[in-house]
Automatic annotation (TrEMBL):
The chain crosses the membrane at residues 31-50, 62-82, 88-105, 117-137, 143-162, 174-195, 201-220, 227-255, 261-280. It comes from Arthrobacter gandavensis. Residues 1-21 form the signal peptide. Residues 296-305 have a biased composition (Pro residues). Keywords: Membrane, Signal, Transmembrane, Transmembrane helix. It comes from the Bacteria. Belongs to the EamA transporter family. This is DMT family transporter. Residues 4-132, 144-278 form the EamA domain. Residues 285-313 are annotated as: Disordered. The lineage of its organism: Bacteria, Bacillati, Actinomycetota, Actinomycetes, Micrococcales.
Length: 313
């Protein structure tokens, strides 16, 4: 059953990029509806379990949740915009640098980082240079998309760190309801400021918005949060790396997306670098010493989580 759920989760998150790239709606609007629907889906069962879990929250939990919400909103704005400027495969790979950014943040915070982790970071970011070198030759738009995707990965790392802090004492249902809801409010304000419509789309666009909510938010992120209760975060993180080739394959099949051979080489280098980062974390944990970086995903709560909890795309 665990293997089956892992396959479902990989397919869910891999479909995220291709679906959003094919959805004819503003990036901010897609992000708004994805989070608004996610908050409603999470809020109903959380509300049925009682309101005390929301009333008992302290200032620290609310501050970390607010930071996570802001980072998530900006992550979606960057990532979905990147999908409309560069290829799905490249945007997905650059956003998947999330694990590398978390380790890099620890370097800036003065935390000990394993030499293997640093080597993996260098390798992963070398892959970024390979990809952007080919995108410079394609178009300035593709290069801008790359930059937004890299920023989206860094924001996803910040979101994961903040979410991990908040979820130490919050259930998945409570956290995701507040985080998704706050994220949707921030995105609604951004839509208003930048004059992006949130209604009036074609039936095909609404189908895309519903599709990314079901596939990525529920079948993807929800499944991985469930798996966090039965297998280690490290293993889950390794499984999620399959999103990089998964998104590339789906984009090639359904969007006829063809990339230069050098771009695929860059994708492989990023994938290898991230694998080295995660294996370095595993080695540090195996020796009982502090890990070079926090877990790429927030730690699982004591009880198996209910629906929700973004991993992030």
């Amino acid at each position: 059953m665990t293997f089956f759920l892992a396959v479902v989760g990989v397919l869910g998150v891999s479909a995220s990029g291709p679906i959003m790239a094919a959805t004819a709606a503003p990036a901010l609007a897609i992000a708004f509806w994805r989070n608004a629907l996610g908050a409603i889906i999470m809020g109903v069962p959380a509300g049925l379990r009682g309101k005390d879990q929301f009333r008992s929250l302290g200032r620290t939990e609310l501050r970390w949740t607010a930071l996570a919400s802001l980072a998530l909103a900006l992550h979606f704005a960057c990532f979905i915009t990147a999908l409309q400027l560069t290829s799905v495969a490249v945007a997905t790979a650059l956003v998947c640098l999330q694990a590398g950014w978390i380790a890099l943040f620890d370097v800036f915070r003065g935390r000990p980082v394993a030499a293997q982790t640093l080597a993996g970071l260098v390798l992963a970011f070398a892959g970024v240079l390979v990809i952007t070198g080919f995108d410079v030759a394609l178009s300035p738009e593709a290069l801008l998309g790359d930059a937004l995707a890299v920023a989206g990965g860094a924001l996803a790392g910040l979101y994961t760190i903040a979410g991990g802090k908040a979820r130490r004492t919050m259930s998945t249902g409570t956290y995701t309801t507040l985080c998704y809801g706050s994220c949707a409010l921030i995105l609604a304000v951004l839509c208003l400021v930048f004059q992006k419509p949130v209604i009036g789309f074609s039936p095909a666009a609404w189908a895309g918005i519903l599709g990314v909510t079901v596939m990525a938010q529920l079948l993807g992120h929800t499944v991985f949060n469930h798996l966090l209760a039965v297998i280690s975060p490290l293993v889950v993180s390794m499984i999620i790396l399959l999103e990089i080739p998964g998104a590339a394959i789906l984009a090639a099949v359904f969007l006829s997306e063809a990339l230069p051979a050098g771009t695929y080489a860059g994708l492989a280098v990023i994938l290898a670098g991230l694998a080295v980062v995660l294996l370095g974390q595993a080695r540090k944990k195996g020796t009982g010493r502090p890990s070079g970086a926090e877990d790429p995903l927030p730690p699982a709560p004591p009880a198996p989580p209910a629906l929700g909890g973004d991993v992030e795309r």
